[in-house]
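Posting this for the archive.
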Amino acid sequence: MPEEIVARILRLPGYGVYAWEADEAANTLTLSIRQTGGAPAYRCGSCGISRHEIHSWTERRIRDLPWGTWQVWLRVEVHRVRCRQCGVRTEQLPFVGGKAHYTARLEAAVAQGCEAAPVSRVAAQWGLPPETVRRMDKRVLRRWAASRPRRPLRYLGVDEIFLGKTVKFLTVVSDLETGEPLWVGLERKRETLDRFFAEALPPRRWRAVRAVCVDMWEPFRLSLQAHLPHARLVYDKFHVLRHASEALDETRRAEFFRQGAEARGLIRGKRWLLLRRWANLDWEERQTLNDLFALNRRLAKAYVLKEQLVHLWTYTYEGAARRFLTNWLLALRWQRLPAFQKLGRMLTRHLDGILNYCHEKVPFGKVEAINGNIRAMLRRGRGYRDHEYLLLKVQKATATRRLRQAA
């Protein structure tokens, strides 16, 4: 095989093939390459300036993209150059990232495969160890994240994801405007969120944050008030409604055990029907609930209270929202619903954070969507021990999806 044809297929500008070896039994092709030209220059690995003075050289074996069913390995002459600024340094190869044993284009191809498949499947496809594939993908994602422009953060979202009995919780901080996670940390303590401000958000960027969407977890509130005292804390609508659904479910259980055997038969099996919104029910489901409410007035009152609470986030003015919530709390006075009275006390304690939505219309759905993307990535990858890698994967997937929607 003529070396000129091999060099033309290889397509490494500035480098030429001077020898090659083919192992047909192992389907492996080894190409020996070196710089072409009369007086080649070698770039210093530290400062990147081209130098001509060589201290020593050695050969390095690097894997490249396959040619059909053949594995391709490059045998490269790597020089140590004398740099006036840095001293003796190893030259920087233009087609290899750092000290990796594979070319940058092979790394990019493997990372592209990891966008749509788990690491184990990509590793089997390329004949590489899974840890090597994971490391290659992470290097590409790090370079992609470093090259992105940094935009000011105006709306932050703070939430947690339950991972299991071992790791338990993962705290996620997100940019609600772009819908991307910014940082993840283990546990859901105040110290966890303090690490976010120490590692990922320098003090010069704090003033740009206008509002933070957060649940009613006290450690998160204390950390946010300490670092972002000027930002409004807006309590997540879906967490408040989840507490209302839990109060309705607790009322259902209490009424189930309070009723007799005949009435229990009508209440049994209605849990998920009661937790659904009235607007999402069909005619038969509404008729079933009407029969239940005709028998049990406490359940009817609890369901109406849960449905009414949704309208709290439809108000634009704080005074109107406060008046609505005051009337809603007054309606609880004589209803004999302990679970909703407990819910009312909780809403009263967190009233300012709930009413802040009238001033800052943060997108509540973005927080749940980001958590859903992280859970989907965890299911596809069958779990992640490296949370930095998980964060980079979700960021890249979200940014790619947003670009496709814009196009």
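The mean pLDDT is 89. Residues 237-258 form the longest helix (22 residues).
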